[in-house]
Specification:
This protein is about 30% helix and about 25% strand. The protein is an alpha/beta fold. α8 (about 220-230) links the parallel β11 and β12 (about 235-240).
Length: about 450
């Protein structure tokens, strides 16, 4: 399956999925685990023996760009095939995709990363992974300040190549120091050294109409972020932190419909906001939410100190690897920017804990009507498998999972069904989230939306 999936992606820009889980650039074990997830949650017998024949049929068709869910197509055939030919069924499901010439984007979109820290490097990995045939989002440049080391570029390449949390870069990295270029899986990415946006003219590097992803967090208002738009060759900006003032804070899957062609500056909100808003939206739609409290148990971040030292924030000066640190979070208030109906209904706090990645949000909610843990879990299971929030909400019913099991999760959050507590209209919900990688996936989804990328999704309905 692996070479067929890769060829469809590279040559035809067709992404292959299993119940929303991408199979592109995945290992044998990853593909097997994706099938196992469906068997566990759907309680069916879906296996590679059902999906591989469908993949073979798809590979022989002249398909246009699309996202195709093998798992859902296989299950649909099991339920609706009525003993008919699998080939005829698959061809009928993708009939309007055969020989289609519509591209997800009229012209390739140049992308620039401003900053190359934890989120910047993960977004770079995702953009290189999703490059496909090269006709959608193209990572053209990364802007950083010049380090004091003589081999600055080599050091930055090494940080991209090896990551203590997320593992090694899947592919090859070549360093061209003479031209300040990193060649990532054959894609040339220019490294631009600058101390501020005003120093950069992107057109000098053949970059035009670029969307700049600012992952520094230095500027969070329109005036500060507007510096990027003032640069030649840049047209729009996405901030990987909560925006201030009138900047739209977008949680993809919830309010990305608010993005319009005239928007120049957007925020992808925070990792915690992205984690809790989809679950809150699901709860509101089914039960209503009268009020609630959000407690985040959050991995420590680069903002904290390794050992006790001065910090402008309360308590954050104490050693991150040695303490649980009680601090504040703006996520509860930020929810209202994506879900105005919840304005004033949520409070929140955060506890930073001595783990480097993966956090948990605990939602203590007073619902609009009574339910049971079984009913609520069944509803969230369906939301994770079938609803428009499929990319945002994942689902686990394993009694053994711990935080490290969710490193690399591409969802905004993972709903832990085994931990759910319900008493009448009072519910306590536990949601894991990879505050680095899962959030970076949400950033890239916002980036695609801002660029106008639009894929047809199969099977339909």
């Amino acid at each position: 399956m692996i070479p067929v999936i890769g060829k469809l992606n590279r040559e035809r820009n067709v992404g292959i999925y299993i119940y929303g889980r991408s199979l592109v650039n995945r290992s044998v074990i990853d593909i097997m685990k994706s099938h196992r997830f469906v068997r566990q949650v759907e309680e069916n017998e879906l296996s590679e023996f059902e999906t591989a024949p469908i993949l073979d049929i798809l590979s022989q068709l002249d398909l246009g760009p699309a996202h195709i869910d093998l798992g859902k197509m296989a299950v649909k055939y099991m339920k609706e095939g009525n003993g008919g030919s699998l080939e005829d069924f698959v061809k009928a499901e993708v009939a309007d995709l055969i020989s289609a010439e519509d591209k997800p984007l009229a012209e390739p979109q140049d992308v620039v990363l401003y900053g190359f820290g934890r989120i910047g490097r993960l977004v770079a990995r995702l953009l290189v992974e999703k490059a496909g045939s090269g006709d959608v989002l193209n990572l053209r440049a990364i802007v950083v300040r010049k380090g004091k080391s003589a081999n600055d570029l080599v050091k930055r390449a090494s940080l991209l190549r090896r990551d203590s949390v997320h593992g090694s870069f899947k592919g090859t990295i070549r360093v061209d120091e003479e031209n300040n270029v990193l060649v990532l899986n054959g894609v040339e990415v220019k490294i631009i050294y600058a101390n501020s946006p005003s120093e950069v003219d992107y057109t000098e590097y053949g970059i035009n109409n670029a969307i700049v992803v600012d992952n520094t967090g230095v500027w969070r208002d329109e005036d500060g972020l507007g510096q990027h738009i003032a640069c030649k060759g840049a047209s729009k900006v996405i901030l990987t932190a909560p925006g201030k003032g009138d900047i739209k804070n977008i949680v993809y899957g919830i309010n990305n419909g608010d993005i319009n062609a005239d928007d120049k500056i957007l925020s992808a909100a925070s990792c915690t906001t992205n984690a809790i808003v989809p679950v809150l939206k699901a709860m509101m739609d089914e039960y209503g939410v009268n009020h609630g409290h959000v407690e985040t148990v959050h991995a420590y971040t680069n903002d904290q100190n390794l050992i006790d030292n001065y910090h402008k924030g309360d308590r954050r000066g104490r050693s991150a690897p040695l303490n649980m640190v009680l601090t504040e979070t703006g996520a509860a208030k930020a929810v209202a920017k994506a879900l105005p109906e919840l304005k004033g209904k949520l409070t929140g706090n955060a506890i930073r804990v001595p783990t480097p990645n993966v956090s948990m949000a605990i939602l203590n909610l007073q619902l609009g009507k009574e339910t049971t843990a079984e009913e609520l879990n069944a509803y969230m299971r369906d939301a994770a498998l079938y609803s428009p929030l499929q990319q945002q909400i994942d689902f686990t019913n394993s009694p053994e999972v711990v935080s490290s099991d969710f490193v690399g999760s591409r969802h905004a959050c993972v709903f832990d069904a085994k931990a759910t507590i319900v008493d009448g209209n009072s519910a306590v919900l536990y949601c894991w989230y990879d505050n680095e990688f899962g959030y970076s996936c949400q950033v890239v989804r916002c980036l695609e939306d801002m660029a106008g990328v639009n894929y047809n999704i199969y099977p339909k309905g």
